[in-house]
Amino acid sequence: MVIISQDIMQQFQNLMETIDEPLKKTFENLHQGYPHETLVRFLKARDGNVPKAHKMLVDCLNWRIQNEIDNILAKPIVPAEFYRGVRDSQLIGMSGYTKEGRPVIAVGVGLSTYEKASIHYYVQSHIQINEYRDRIILPAATKKFERHISTCVKVLDMTGLKIAQLSQLKLLTVISSIDDLNYPEKTDNYYIVNAPYIFSACWKVVRPLLQERTRKKIQVLSGCGKDDLLKIMDYESLPHFCRREGSGSSRYSARSGDDDCFSLDHTFHQELYKYINQQAEAIELPAPIKHRSFHVDFPEPDPDDRKIAETIESECQKLSHQNGMANKLDDLTIKEDNGERK
Questions:
Q1: Can you say whether the dihedral through the CA atoms of 330, 335, 336, 340 is positive or negative?
Q2: d(CA 6, CA 107)
Q3: Are residues 47 and 109 in the same domain?
Q4: Which domain does 38 fall in, by range?
């Protein structure tokens, strides 16, 4: 466990006082009134090493400026029906709060297809959810629960996970790298539910590659995880795929807009999309918003993330051969804006 001493904090604060004004401005948007806690997050991500934490944070601030992240919540994905396709193929949402007030983010890992749009739309959507969480959801939770809340928990549904989804590794590695480098230590715990055999096989070889700090955050729960999750949240905050044993998967549950937190009709996504469109209107753009993605520079994957991706690929290939599957696993592909594959 990393111990952040007062001396370490002072060193970091002194370094931050020397950064340029544009970086200081975007840092204010990043820390949302809690600079000390933000510095602690970056220090934890670099095991208390001040120079490394400082470089990580400065790189993050430069990334935000170069990619206009401060304005990303004013760039809606349009038209709405196209955005619905993004939501239906990138399953993520917010189902409620833990008893301690942390937002519960649900992710449909196994049933996300990422087939309705280019990689850039999915990355844009992911960053928008991150920014909305940090700028709107967490401050609101802090006010509601009368204590500072800066992190969330994630429930990852593995229903439907297949070897064929190896083709999504490029996109998932990009998203993971963006989170690791620019939104470190924002998730307290990851709860894995509805895990099929393929996940168990991959987890066995991936787990030793994770940093101890990360391993301690991950819990693989039995079945849909309902009983375990009810220890930390009320029934109303359970993701829809955790509510009933035997029919708790996101594929077979009744998925009404009110119940299914992945759906664009869910309150969370309705409020998010409404907020983004309102911010866009406030800027008073001279022309209608065009149907195009907001391109963000993709970071180079961390060596550890790359090794994990390669290990998952290798393990899936072994499973494929063991199961006698004839379909060859080609190079990782993802749909580009022009519809071509690369």
A1: positive
A2: 37
A3: no
A4: 7-66
